[in-house]
Amino acid sequence: MSAHDDEKIHQVLQQILEFELAGVIRFTHYALMVRGPNRIPIVDFFQSQASESLTHAQRAGEILTGLGGHPNMGIAPIQETNQHSVQAILEESFVHEKAAIEKYQELCRLTAGGSVFLEEYARSMVAAEEEHVMELRKMMRDLEV
What we know:
The chain is mainly α. The chain is built from 4 helices and no strands. α1 (3-33) packs antiparallel against α2, α1 runs antiparallel to α3 and α3 runs antiparallel to α4.
């Protein structure tokens, strides 16, 4: 890989780090805002998502620094819609997870045929995010009218 490729990989890892940190805030906020008779399992779900986002951010940061990069202290922008129905937050979560897949797929494209470690990391993260999307789809089915 060229120095240009290395720089691009650093940039995408930084974006992933920022995106996952924003997920920590997003999912923590959702857990706080859930109301209704099914609150407890949904709160547990979002708290788990927040913890997992932190783990993903830490992993991306460790890889970035392992490659000689320097993570900044920013996070990706978070839009507050003030829509707090369970349906709305599940839909927003769905959009967030789909965007995460795109970030990890970009890393897949950049690392394909290069570092086996980076390629496998990116592929495993795509798989994890795709699983989240599938789970959210199942959760939203009961809310369809």
